[in-house]
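Notes, p. 3: input format for complexes.
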Amino acid sequence: MLTSIKNRSVIVTGGSKGIGRGIATVFARQGAKVMIAARGEEAAKETVNALKSEGLTADWVKCDVSDWDSVQNMVAKTVETFGGLDILCANAGMYPQTKMVDMDPSEWDNVISTNLRSAFLCVKACIPQFEKTGKGRVVLTSSITGPVTGFPGWTHYGASKAGQLGFLKTAAMELSRYNTTINAVMPGNIYTEGLEDLGQDYLDTMAASIPLKRLGAVEDIGNAALFFASDEAGYITGQQVVVDGGQILPESLEALEEI
Ligand code: NAP
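Output follows (259 residues plus NAP):
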């Protein structure tokens, strides 16, 4: 049993959909006050209303995580609404699938900016709050794709997700000054709207390649993030955990068939 995070103020970027919505739901059900940051109003409002209908505390702020002014506004609105900030879950991301031969350099820049620059911007914007409380938590949503595995079409994505882990190591050292930890969750294939867009064939093939024989649920990532955000994880920083149902384990197709 973890010490309660009741009433802690949490930002979840990309909290309107998919994994972010899962993280927001797990945290809100533990009594945290959750600020969802996303660009699209409809999905964000729908998620906030769903949480409120359970009697939970949630709000949303329009934010583009690749834009510095927008990110600063996200933190300001959170502090204004909830009276402070304790936890940042930097989760928003995108994964368009384009092979290098067809990739316009602007697509590369957009993915790196949305997935990696955003991690720097969001953490930087929260530092004054962590300095104030002397006790902050940051959880990044990285991926197995990039740091551990490769997949054609995702050079930019893989670079951004591996880059997040490089960022994490030195960020952990800098944030230790404020008694603040930063860690990353590395999801395998998690069932989300974004993944659904890749098609049923993709979903079926991926499920078959996972030893636990299912795609992950968004709450599987939310629970891992909750642990990193807990008091009990206060001595863990600069680390990452793979949450993938064993997806990265098989050495070959034969190894998978042996199960
Ligand atoms: P998703 O269902 O497509 O949701 C993405 C969320 O991020 C949405 O709330 C979206 O809202 C928000 N977002 C995207 N660009 C943004 C921007 N520039 N500014 C603010 N918000 C933005 O994606 P997901 O599958 O849940 O993925 C979430 C994270 O998990 C990503 O970092 C992804 O790389 C990582 N991940 C996912 C999987 C998986 O299997 N699904 C596996 C490994 C890692 P708006 O579009 O309205 O802004």
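The radius of gyration is 18 Å.
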